[in-house]
């Protein structure tokens, strides 16, 4: 039964039936998308926008929509999926945040410059580095010059409403541009609020249209073939840009018409510029999104004290409502513009710069403008902060001057006396170079022989990662990594791509790493470490490192996981083809666990994740897992291996080999399977058993490819230890459904593929030419 709370909220009556839900901003973006029933969503998980795809996937399992959800190999790929889908004439949707948006940035002007509509939710988050996953507007400001109209959302209600209006705006013949709907990450995206929605999908379709408007060109019309994105000379290109620019400015007028129509239907109005008590204001604060709601309380407090205060917040910043802002500030003595991102070196954030330009353009030379950067990295914004922003404006209005036109608000000035002290002492070289492991190259075979002592003798080697990190109970990453590192002698330099292993070990100002550590982006670790490796060898050649007294070369190790060999596969292959002397070690937890257990390409078919849910219309992931080890072996690097802590001596032997090859020949790739109890829905104590079963089912075979020759290093069939696939699957909640009779066909497909890969591996083991 629909509940009408419009009168309670003080809004005008609408004409369409509505109902109340209690959801977050991300849920409402997904809810609007499912009501629109887009054709395609290309996506890649990144916090805090990841949930949008998760909610849509969950709804799809019960048949609530028909959207085809395409998990890309990275945000650049997801943007390409969306662009391709939009050129084919259907409705397209996406959601991203922060560095993910920057990774797809190259594609954004292509989408708008060729005039193909779509809607993308930008759930705003800090752009690193260093890494911060909380909300500010640094990604939003990068969007300003991409040619996409940008709508803003201060609460989950606005997320829902703007998503519906955005599609109508994008598809309007006078606009025909892709549109961004921006909300604040971890503020609006995750806060639960009462939201009014259309009760019936048919009413949404009556507003936006059941399908895209007729007359749009697309690539599927064989009778009217088109060329998309041609090469253009200068006179043609400037004309194209002019047409795009005019469409952008028309978007403001079209939006105004759409929001008026929407207000009549729903009783909710979103004017281009939201003005709060600005009719006689003498001082004002200009803010975007969620903070704009907080500052309204401050306006009321100041009004009660006799201060004529007001607040301004745009619902659209592309096109920038310059005239409306200038008109609103005409009688205002001073305004503080709060920017949740800095335009470094620009003497103010982007909103400050554009507001000043608006005042100048429209003849307002009297209103004083104060610029303050606030709330970076998700720093909380309270009413007290809003009051302080008003105090800056009040002081400027009183004195007629702005003493400090630009500054940060809420930062803490550094105190050298309080600099963090070293907590962990560097490890001693003598502790790391034990001599217990011997590695001897065989001149006859060209391979490497390794002797490993009993494991108890290696326990005296110090752990390279200190206890006290924030990993989940039962996490297999660090037991797996430490087992591998026991096989490495001497000093290392480690680079970690973004993922669980990185996030839980480096909470500033402390670090669990006892050796030199570097972090770089999810996709670019291999390229980054390549640069480190080559700089080391070149500086060593020039004698620039002699004073450091290095006893031998570093071993350079890149740690990747949580899907890093999806988005990072290209740079990893590039590093392999260049054959840098380094190790790439992947911990495979079968998903993007650091962002909430979304599917990765290493997730096996049928397995449940937050973006491959199980329901009446869908049974887990719909395609097979990627065989990363075989892909890397195809680059013809000197050494590739798989390993498992359930077979510790095998892993130690391979680690020692990996070090020798990385120091003497070239790039090494290794993959270890590790358990993730939280997202595999398994018991903490069963981790080693699950990994052991994965090996003994032949799902995760243990082998090495040394100088192109494949050797199976552990064969469960020969040892009579092979176990049925169902024995393994029953141990994890994410796969238990595969053992049910109704999923027998899917289980058979999974088992058949595992058997095919295992037989191919045995054939390679038998022949040095395969």
TrEMBL record:
<dbReference type="Pfam" id="PF01855">
    <property type="entry name" value="POR_N"/>
</dbReference>
<feature type="domain" description="Thiamine pyrophosphate enzyme TPP-binding">
    <location>
        <begin position="552"/>
        <end position="658"/>
    </location>
</feature>
<keyword id="KW-0408">Iron</keyword>
<keyword id="KW-0813">Transport</keyword>
<dbReference type="GO" id="GO:0051539">
    <property type="term" value="F:4 iron, 4 sulfur cluster binding"/>
</dbReference>
<dbReference type="InterPro" id="IPR029061">
    <property type="entry name" value="THDP-binding"/>
</dbReference>
<keyword id="KW-0004">4Fe-4S</keyword>
<dbReference type="Pfam" id="PF02775">
    <property type="entry name" value="TPP_enzyme_C"/>
</dbReference>
<dbReference type="InterPro" id="IPR050722">
    <property type="entry name" value="Pyruvate:ferred/Flavod_OxRd"/>
</dbReference>
<dbReference type="GO" id="GO:0006979">
    <property type="term" value="P:response to oxidative stress"/>
</dbReference>
<dbReference type="InterPro" id="IPR011766">
    <property type="entry name" value="TPP_enzyme_TPP-bd"/>
</dbReference>
<dbReference type="InterPro" id="IPR009014">
    <property type="entry name" value="Transketo_C/PFOR_II"/>
</dbReference>
<dbReference type="GO" id="GO:0016491">
    <property type="term" value="F:oxidoreductase activity"/>
</dbReference>
<dbReference type="Pfam" id="PF17147">
    <property type="entry name" value="PFOR_II"/>
</dbReference>
<comment type="similarity">
    <text>Belongs to the pyruvate:ferredoxin/flavodoxin oxidoreductase family.</text>
</comment>
<feature type="domain" description="Pyruvate:ferredoxin oxidoreductase core">
    <location>
        <begin position="281"/>
        <end position="385"/>
    </location>
</feature>
<keyword id="KW-0411">Iron-sulfur</keyword>
<keyword id="KW-0670">Pyruvate</keyword>
<dbReference type="GO" id="GO:0030976">
    <property type="term" value="F:thiamine pyrophosphate binding"/>
</dbReference>
<keyword id="KW-0249">Electron transport</keyword>
<keyword id="KW-0479">Metal-binding</keyword>
<dbReference type="InterPro" id="IPR033412">
    <property type="entry name" value="PFOR_II"/>
</dbReference>
<keyword id="KW-0560">Oxidoreductase</keyword>
<dbReference type="InterPro" id="IPR002880">
    <property type="entry name" value="Pyrv_Fd/Flavodoxin_OxRdtase_N"/>
</dbReference>
<feature type="domain" description="Pyruvate flavodoxin/ferredoxin oxidoreductase pyrimidine binding">
    <location>
        <begin position="32"/>
        <end position="258"/>
    </location>
</feature>
<protein>
    <submittedName>
        <fullName>Pyruvate synthase</fullName>
    </submittedName>
</protein>
């Amino acid at each position: 039964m629909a509940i009408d709370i419009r009168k309670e909220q003080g809004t005008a009556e609408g004409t369409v039936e509505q109902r109340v839900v209690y959801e977050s901003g991300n849920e409402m973006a997904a809810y609007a998308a499912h009501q629109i029933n887009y054709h395609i969503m290309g996506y890649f998980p990144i916090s805090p926008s990841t949930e949008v795809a998760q909610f849509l996937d969950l709804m799809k399992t019960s048949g609530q929509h028909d959207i085809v959800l395409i998990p890309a190999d990275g945000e650049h790929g997801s943007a390409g999926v969306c662009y391709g889908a939009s050129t084919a004439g259907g409705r397209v949707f996406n959601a991203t945040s922060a560095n993910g948006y920057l990774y797809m940035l190259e594609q954004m002007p292509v989408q708008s410059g060729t005039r193909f509509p779509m809607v993308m939710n930008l759930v705003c988050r800090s752009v690193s580095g260093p890494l911060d996953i909380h909300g500010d507007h640094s990604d939003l400001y990068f969007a300003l010059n991409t040619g996409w109209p940008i709508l803003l959302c201060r609460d989950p209600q606005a997320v829902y409403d703007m998503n519906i209006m955005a599609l109508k705006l994008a598809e309007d013949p006078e606009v025909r541009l892709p549109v961004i709907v921006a909300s604040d990450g971890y503020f609006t995206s995750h806060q639960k609020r009462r939201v009014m929605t259309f009760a019936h999908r048919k009413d949404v379709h009556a507003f936006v249209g059941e399908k895209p408007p007729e007359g749009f060109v697309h690539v599927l019309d064989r009778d009217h073939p088109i060329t998309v994105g041609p090469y253009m000379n200068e006179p043609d290109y400037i004309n194209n840009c002019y047409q795009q620019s005019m469409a952008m400015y028309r978007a403001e007028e079209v939006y105004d018409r759409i929001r008026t129509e929407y207000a009549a239907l729903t009783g909710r109005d979103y004017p281009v510029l939201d003005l709060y008590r600005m009719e006689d204001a003498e001082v004002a604060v200009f803010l975007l999104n969620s903070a704009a709601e907080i500052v309204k309380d401050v306006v009321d407090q100041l009004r009660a004290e006799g201060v004529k205060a007001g607040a301004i917040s745009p619902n659209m910043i592309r096109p920038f409502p310059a005239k409306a802002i200038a008109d609103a500030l005409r009688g205002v003595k001073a305004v503080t513009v709060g920017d949740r991102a800095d335009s470094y070196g620009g003497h103010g954030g982007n909103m400050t710069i554009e507001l000043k330009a608006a005042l100048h353009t429209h003849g307002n030379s009297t209103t004083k403008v104060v610029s303050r950067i606030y709330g970076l990295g998700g720093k909380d914004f309270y009413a007290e902060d809003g009051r302080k922003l008003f105090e800056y404006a009040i002081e400027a209005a009183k004195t007629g001057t702005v003493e400090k036109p630009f500054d940060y608000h809420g930062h803490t000035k550094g105190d050298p006396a309080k600099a963090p002290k070293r907590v962990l002492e560097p490890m001693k070289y003598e502790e790391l170079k034990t001599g217990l492991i011997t590695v001897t190259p065989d001149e006859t075979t060209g391979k490497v022989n390794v002797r490993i002592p009993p494991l108890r003798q290696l326990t005296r080697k110090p752990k390279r990662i200190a206890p006290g990190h924030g990993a989940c109970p039962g996490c297999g990453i660090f037991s797996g990594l430490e087992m591998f590192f026991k096989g490495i002698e001497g000093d290392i330099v480690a680079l970690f791509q973004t993922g669980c292993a990185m996030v839980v070990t480096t909470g500033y100002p402390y670090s669990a790493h006892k050796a030199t550590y570097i972090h770089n982006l999810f996709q670019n670790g291999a390229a980054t470490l390549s640069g480190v490796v080559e700089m080391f060898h070149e500086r060593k050649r020039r004698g620039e490192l002699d004073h450091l007294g290095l006893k031998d070369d570093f071993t350079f190790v890149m740690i990747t996981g949580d899907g890093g060999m999806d988005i990072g596969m290209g740079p990893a292959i590039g590093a392999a083809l260049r054959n840098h002397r380094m190790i790439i070690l992947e911990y495979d937890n079968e998903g993007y666990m650091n962002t909430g257990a979304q599917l990765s390409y290493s997730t096996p078919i049928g397995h449940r994740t937050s973006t491959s849910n199980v329901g009446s219309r869908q049974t887990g992931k719909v395609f097979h897992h990627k065989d990363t080890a075989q892909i890397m072996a195809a680059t013809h690097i000197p050494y590739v291996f798989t390993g498992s802590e359930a077979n510790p001596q095998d892993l130690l032997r391979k680690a020692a080999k990996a070090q020798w090859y990385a120091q003497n020949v070239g790039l090494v790739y290794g993959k270890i399977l590790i358990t993730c109890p939280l997202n595999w829905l398994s018991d903490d104590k069963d981790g080693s058993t699950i990994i052991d079963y994965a090996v003994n089912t032949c799902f995760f075979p243990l082998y090495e490819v040394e100088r192109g020759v494949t050797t199976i290093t552990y064969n469960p069939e020969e040892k009579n230890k092979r176990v049925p696939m169902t024995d393994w699957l029953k141990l994890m909640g994410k796969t238990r459904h595969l053992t049910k009779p109704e999923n027998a066909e899917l289980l058979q497909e999974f088992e058949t593929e595992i058997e095919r890969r295992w037989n191919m591996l045995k054939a390679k083991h038998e022949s040095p030419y395969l």
